[in-house]
Structure formats: C-alpha cells, structure tokens
Amino acid sequence: MSSHECPGLPAEWLNAWLAAIGTTVLVPDMRLSWTDGASPHAILHAPDGFSPVDLLADAWPTQERIADMPIAERWLGLKPMARTVPLAVFQDRARHGRSHPDIWTLSSTVTDLYLSGGNPRRPPEVEHSRLDPAGPGSVKWLHHRFGRVAERVDDPATWMAASFAGRSQRVDDNGLGFDLTRVTSLADSSTKRVDPVVETLAFFGLRLFPVRGSGVAPRHSIGSWHSHVRQRAWCLDADSGRRRMIWPAWSQPLRMSGVDALLDIWDPQQRRRWRQFGIHSAWCSTEFEGRGSADATRGIGSQPL
User: What is this structure's pTM?
Assistant: First the structure.
C-alpha cells in the first residue's frame, strides 16, 4: 500500500475524524489508520501504485450524484423533503430508495423510530440525527448544506492536498452545522468559516452513523430527545443525563467495513482492552453553549479520554 499522512485531519477534531472515515466510503479500497502520540492524525492507505489524493479526486461527488441523493429536496417526483420531514415523506423516500446506493443518507439523517409532535391536527414528523442540526436562514436541511460546500471544491486534488497537509482554504459557510472550529468568539463579528474538503468528506463519514429511536409513539413519550433518539457512538452520560459522542483512533489500516466492525465491538468503558483492538486514543464530545436562549448555534468539540 502507499500511505499518505494527513496532519490536517487530527482525530481530536470530530469533523476531521468523520472526514477521514468518509475517504473509505468514497473509495472502497482506501484504508485508514491513525498516528500514535499526543495528537494523532489520519494516515490514508491506497493500493500500491495509487495516490490516495488522486483516488479521492476521481471519486469526488458530482453535482449529478448530489442531486440524485434520496434526501434531496426534490427527488423522483415525490413530495418535497425540507427540514421538517413528515412521516409520509420519509416513508415514500425509504420505499423508493431501498436499493439506491446512497440510501444511507436517509438513515443517517432522520429516523421514523421516534416521532416528534403527536398533535392530532398535525401529521407526525420524523426526528433528526444529532449530526443533522438545523441550519440558519433558508439553508436548514443537511442535503442543501452539503451541496453548498461540495460545489466550492472546484479542483478536488489541489484542495485535498492542502487540506490534508493542514493548509486548508476556509470559505464563508456554515457547513454541515456542527463544526466547533467555525464558531467565532463573542468579540468577533466575522462570519462562520469552514473547510469545504473536511465538510464534504465528513458528510460521507456519516454513512457509518445511522440514527434510530426507541419506537415509542409520541403520545406515550416521556422525557427528552436524549431518552429516545439513538445513534451509533452516542452514549448516555450518567452525570449529566445527556448523550455524548465517543470516538477512537486505531493503529491498523482498516477499510470501511473494518471501521464499521471496530465501532461495533469496541467498548470505551473497557480501557484495558483498547490495545487488543488496536485503539490507542479516544475522545468524547463537548458541546458549544449558546450565547442566550435565542442562540441556536451548534458546535461539537472534544476532550480526551
């Protein structure tokens, strides 16, 4: 295999960690591992004789592929899908997209195993993933936000080479909506800026993080979102009563299926067994605290375990 170290994709940065996984989704033969040390970063492994960056550039999502995703606002003449997703709309998308190669975009975005609302005068709505927060203004749903950042990368090979090296070119955009590094300070009036390469690849990394629910009907629901909506890698914190995301870094080069299996078998509570699975570091999420009740800004940071 030929390897490419990516200091611009540190594992402690959630969006970069998801982006590294996204490379294995875009290129099935790509493998991913992480350096050891104080601040691990991604190492991409491609078949011998191939450049990881070139393979990713060839697989970069086209506008045609993006427009044909089952979570597009308008798809196959079905009812439009915006931020608020009625149950009937979800059911139509799931039914017609069952064999679509990007049907995971639906299951990693919303779930019908928990319904919000319950008002008999209003149709039930499916619930969103923690990694699909509402966006500002008119750009409220994930597919729209993803398309905006993906199209900013007009030369994928050049943009990725810079981003992987830690010399990313940020653009004015909200991105997927949960990158903590895009949030400015109270004293800074500048707009939010994101790395479009990281945001695009992170979107594909979401494939391994389907969202589910407890299956409890709205009229029987007791408690908060955290009690009912479930997503891989999100664990209930006993002290705060909130769910926090936990993610690892590992030493062995793994394809997407290997990462999938590792996330299934790894138990962050059993630290003595981390090395058995090649895991040498892990982090848990910390969330941005809004500047007031009207501040809907979302941002997910990390702290080491």
Answer: 0.92
